[in-house]
Amino acid sequence: MPTRIPVPLTQFVLKMHSRCDLACDHCYVYEHADSSWRTRPRATGDEILAKTAERIGEHAAAHRLTAVRVVLHGGEPLLAGPDRLRRAAEALRAALPPGCALDLRIHTNGVLLSRSFCELFAELGVRVGISLDGDRAANDRHRRFADGRSSHPQVLRAVALLREPSYQHLYAGLLCTIDVENDPVAVYRALAELQPPAVDFLLPHATWDDPPKRPSGRGTTPYADWLLTVHELWEADRRPFAVRTFESVHRTRRGLSSLTESLGLEPSDLAVIETDGSFEQADSLKTAYDGAPATGMDVFRHSLDDLARHPGIAARQSGLAGLSDTCRSCPVVRSCGGGLYAHRYRSHHGSGGFDHPSVYCGDLMKLINGIAGQGSSVPVPAQGGEPVRPSPLDPAHLDQLARGYGDGDTVRALSRAQLALTRAMLAAAWDASGRGRGEAWALLAALDAEAPAAVDAVLAHPYARAWAARRLAGDLSVGLGPLAALAAAAAVRAGRAGLGEAVQVAVPVRGGWLHLPTLGRVAVPDGEAVVTGLADGFRVRAADGSERGELDEPLRRVRLAGGWTVALEDVDPLRDSHDHAVAGRLPAGELLDWTGALREAWELLGRDLPGYAEGLRAGLTTITPLRPGPAGRDVSSAARQAYGAVAIARPSTAPTLALLLAHEFQHVKLGAVLDLYDLYDRADDRLYFAPWRPDPRPLEGLLQGTYAHLAVTEYWGTRTAAYDGLPGDAAERARAQFALWRRYTAEAVERLAGSGALTALGARFADGMRESLTPWLAVPLPAAAERDAERIRVRLQPVEA
Fold first, then answer.
1. How far apart are alpha carbons 622 and 625 in whole angstroms?
2. What's the sign of the alpha-carbon dihedral 369, 370, 371, 376?
3. 580 and 546 in a common domain
4. Distance CA 688, CA 2 (A)
5. Among 746, 717, 725, 741, which Cα is nearest to 789's?
6. Are residues 629 and 777 in the same domain?
7. Residue 467 in 3-state DSSP?
8. Which of 553, 581, 598 marks a domain boundary?
9. Is the same domain home to 271 and 126?
10. Pick from 162, 181, 180, 158: which is nearest to 172 by CA?
11. pLDDT for 622-669, tens place per residue?
12. Exposure pattern of 194-233 as b/e (b: 16+ CB <10 Å)?
């Protein structure tokens, strides 16, 4: 049955200093209702830093988080000084468990930013966001020193530092608080001139008690009008930088997640740690009333799970159910999400508190509809299980997939759809970079016209999409190098490609390796290398002038029975898209072990799972070796943005490898289906118990697990049939596993069917899975096998609270 548990917290604002060297009159910390800053320590002490890092680390380990984001904040965090900032960064990195990445940032007014700070941030991997409201006139309206002096020259100096080649990778973007009395065109042009990777345009914090200013003569929705003017310029300039507000509207209109807490229905996963170690809710609540963000909790007495259960945190995690009646009936609610939680506050007028639409309600409605009317080419997703995007699948394909299978034609159709999606995502990510035509993109476009097979071969590589997915999710730390590497690989594959002269492209090199997707990597010094595709190979000219013409570590492939080959991907830097740590370059002995195990596993799949093997052969192109898991535990993974790949730590036996391949490729297939169709109501935010897990999961998790275990059930069913009547430990284990997994999977199918959240096509999939299980449920088993299965079941039985 569904239940609710706290949503894990993955984003943290760590207050490093509680004072500021500017006196901005629109600051929510010092100028709004909350006055708690007056009694807090100026700087965060070492004991608090250490305990904060410990809390975040234990939370990440408990919830198996693959990444957390920490923003060093204030006040003005640079006032904390370089030594304290270093201690914070080092403590946070040391506390995180293996496999959990740290996205560490600092938000500053830029006044104190210096070359020495930039050197520190380059060493520690800290990206820098700068607050800037536009040109000097716009910025001086609010962002001044206490004596009235302008801060604009110092901020421009800070941005200039971040734009230097040595520090450009630290430049996270600009934060601009909107003032509708500032000219939106001038503000946009001033920010665009600074070539930021991203700009956040922020509505000034306001409530119904303290509403935003609406100057006379500017209508009732001046903030929407201001933003729509900027949006039109941004689109006309081909999206020169990322803007989370605009991109979130585009994303939520087609059923995807928002990139910002101020829009969409995704649960908030943010916590604040103040300089005294107290846990607070979002800083924006300081604008509501004195003490609004307080939780009564701190890092010494409470865990982050305790904090996630706080009613105030939970209120920002309840999605549609947590909105006012007015919001729930609004046609744009799935994009608007009721606006920022703090902006809903009203102290009287019937029900007080936050059970109201945003004070910017009219502006948000006009903005969302206006963006739709400014020519967005992104379609609104259809409901009821209709395709989210044009589908290459016919009813026969869907029926096969619903039953858990999928022949070669069906899986190849999925592969074509995934290639089209990869192309679209790459284009969207490149457009959002604001780099115009660009050398790498221009080369890909030219090769696509002259040598499309070479481009398709590279873009079909499972990790080609990983770069675009991360960029579109707001992670700009991956830079633009991976796209240049894709273009270089396509150039190498195409040779001259009918383009006349040999084609070439510059590729940034970090870590001493130039990676060419689908081909391998070349050892070259860091810097910018130029790759030239030749008719009979390639040439790499490194930054130091040296030249190379061969791969030092080629991508290795294993040829299996029937001529099928799979790549053992152990060099692609983006292969870390899985939930587990990837292995390094396989030594010769390990490569031989993998080769033998894969060949034996493929034979077993053809014999024991013929209904799954054909689809595997058509769609599985890549196996990424993982590091071994804990003793006795098999580790495997499929990544949603890596179609065609599965990741596995090589198990001790070939039969187990066969099982893991079939299991993970089920996830690959279903993920591809979910990219095309809605099988369930994406607004359903309940959590569901799967029979095989102690923790409840979102509906998609239950659906994915059930679909994967169709193959697991059939695997053990066929092995049980092979042992029919035979004694021995292997036979008894097969029977017990078969009894367990057919029961588990059947229960999960019925839980899905009874959820009330499946679309018509989702119900069709539930029917198909039930149809596949029915004959296996009818297979008679010895009573001992059922007893063994029950013992395992009781030991692992989840507690349904």
1. 10
2. positive
3. no
4. 4
5. 741
6. yes
7. helix
8. 553
9. yes
10. 162
11. 999 999 888 768 899 999 889 999 999 999 899 999 999 999 999 999
12. bebbbbbbbbbbbbbbeebeeeeeeeebbbbbbbbbbbbb
Residue 298 in tokens? 């701190």
The single-letter code of the amino acid at 219 is G
End-to-end CA separation in angstroms for the chain: 9
| The token pair that represents 369 in the structure block | 């509809």
Is 562 found in the same domain as 546?
Answer: no
Residue 408 contacts residue 618 (beta carbons within 8 Å)? yes
pTM: 0.55
Are residues 585 and 530 in contact, defined by beta-carbon separation less than 8 angstroms? no
Residues facing 75 on adjacent strands: none
**Tokens representing residue 602 in the block:** 């493929």
- Burial string for 385-415 (b: 16+ CB within 10 Å, else e) reads bebbbebbbeeebbbbbbbbbbeeebbbbbb
Is residue 716 within 8 Å of residue 766, measured between CB atoms?
Answer: no
> Model confidence over 245-304: pLDDT tens digits?
888 887 776 656 677 878 877 767 888 999 999 998 877 777 778 777 888 999 999 999
- Assess whether 657 and 765 both reside in one domain: yes
Domain that holds residue 506: 435-553
Number of alpha helices (DSSP H) and beta strands (DSSP E) in the chain: 26, 23
Query: What are residue 372's phi and psi, to 5 degrees?
Result: -65, -35
> DSSP label at 238?
T
CB atoms within 10 A of CB 172: 23
Cα Rg of the chain (Å, integer):
28
Residue 384 lies in a domain: no
Do residues 506 and 631 both lie within one domain?
no
Residues of the chain with pLDDT under 70: 1-7, 26-37, 253-257, 267, 316-321, 348-352, 373-392, 434-437, 496-502, 632, 793-801
Tell me: cis bond preceding 75? Omega within 30 of 0 counts: yes
Q: How many CB atoms lie within 10 A of CB 661?
A: 26
Same domain, 546 and 671: no
- Assign 3-state DSSP to the chain and report helix, strand, coil percentages, each to 5: 45, 15, 40
